[in-house]
Amino acid sequence: MSSLWRALYQVSPNLFPKGPDFVTPESKLIDQPKFQVIYHETDMVDSQLLTDTGLKNIQMHVEMARSMLPGKFSHDKNRPDCLLKMVKNQPLTRADCGKDVRHFEFEFISSAIKYEVGDVLELLPGQNPAAVDAFIQHCNLEPESLITVHPRVMESAESNAPNVPIKLKTFVELNMDVASASPRRYFFEVMSFFATAQHEKERLQYFASPEGRDDLYQYNQKERRTVLEVLEDFPSVQMPFEWLVQLVPQLKTRAFSISSSLSAHPNQVHLTVNVVSWTTPFKRTRTGLCSTWLAKLDPQQNTGLYIPAWFHKGLLPPPPPSLPLILVGPGTGCAPFRGFVEERTIQDVSDRAAPIMFFFGCRSEENDFLYKDFWLSHALENGVLAEQRGGGFYVAFSRDQPQKVYVQHKMQEHSGRIWDLLLEGASIYVAGSSTKMPSDVRAAFEDIISREAGVSKETAELQLRRLERDGRYHVEAWS
After folding, report:
1. Looking only at Cα atoms, what is the longest distance across the chain?
2. Could you tell me the superkingdom of the organism this chain comes from (predicted)?
3. How far apart are the C-alpha atoms of 67 and 87, rounded to whole Å?
4. Which of 166, 305, 417, 479 is the most exposed place for a label (fewest CB within 10 A)?
5. 260-288 per-position pLDDT tens digit
6. What is the pTM of this model?
7. What is the pLDDT of residues 422-473, one digit of tens each?
């Protein structure tokens, strides 16, 4: 910016009558926050709205809180499609194997949703109550205060936003990610205006400056420091709640591929979730907010916990029963294909369904062979994954032998049968990690088409692109 000011000054000095290096006094640099918080008297609010724990009221509380979020959201986005209750929390991996993947089953509580295989479920995660309480206490907030939050400049599109007060603590719980997400640079800049300790003010100003950018990255992003941790590191800072509403990262929903068929499990939806954890450069353990929260829930003890949920179309369209399928889903990429197999098994009862070839991959047969019994049972003689029917189930264990074996290697072993299915009109579905897997699998398909059809790699690539255009090659990958 300084370079820009100097360049403009050379073009037209009268743009900067005091020179391009003149600095506006610090006290004038901070503007008003973009949002205002209005506090309401308790006796002016319907007490039933605050105490009723009925399902409709819970949904309404979520909608009211989310509608006050900074940013523009439709009311359909704010209101959950339904509330879910967890009924099963089952580990799929062996304890102490270095991974924790779980199978979760939920029942519809408020209203049943008609979803399809390949759809995506979004959940609003709960936050650690101790962290929420610590944040509220550190910021000298009154948790039982009744508030509404509004943009300081009301736009017409927001003028019809719900205006029902909610408790401040409820707003924080449902909207403000205080103990998972890291704040942005502007958070540190605003903090510097409210720091009363000189050494803290100088440190925050340094972090917010161009010179301190690298140190801020090391302190904040690399270590994934949370809002609560940053505030505790600078105890003299007391930011007004309006600024916190604006600057604390929003609590976001988390999206998961659905791993069940509604036909097989009426009134239920299932998820396959990798419980995320990692170590920072300073050897601090970090965990994923939603996956860790789900893993700690006990269906027997949390019978009254209702989880807000939204359903969306995914990138994997549900296939008709007459369509042969080639599925590739290593690790938790198998999640949507569990639903595909369940659905096709139901369809197979009334009319013989087309075959499925499924290539699954994991590290070890002993440690993380997810849904082993499920796949093997459907690969028996009459199952939809049976080789006798033109399908098959093939597993690549990457670490059970000296050389690494991945799904693309198993695909090469069965290239002839893959080509036969493609000639029969099969569609390809690929799901899993967005690292190297999707590109390696695509390269394997190109090799197979090139070898089996006797064409060049360039022609094989063109054929694969044609499959994409025709809606016969689908990929759903996540980081």
Report:
1. 86
2. Eukaryota
3. 29
4. 479
5. 999 999 999 999 999 999 999 999 999 99
6. 0.90
7. 999 999 999 999 889 999 999 999 999 999 999 999 999 999 999 999 999 9
Which token pair is 295? 């893993």
| 357 and 418 Cβ atoms separated by less than 8 Å | yes
Tokens 């205080």 map to which residue? 178
